[in-house]
Request: fold
Amino acid sequence: MVLEQERTIADVARSLGIVESNLGNWVKQARIDRGERDGLTTEERAELTRLRRENAQLRMERELLKRATAFWVKESGQ
Reply:
């Protein structure tokens, strides 16, 4: 409604019974997704979240491998 009918955020929020700031955030993100504003698109945000999760997993796996290697070196030395 804000983007298509050019109504104000306050007017639309009031008519839908939602908080103005929430609607404002949604409109802002919609404008970014449409290329009307600079910022991370919804897809880019999802990819960033996925990559951060993957990075954390890889760090944990690397640490586990370091510990396992140290354990096996210690065990094979005895």
Remarks:
- The chain is about 75% helix and 0% strand.
- Residues 40 and 46 are 10 Å apart (CA to CA).
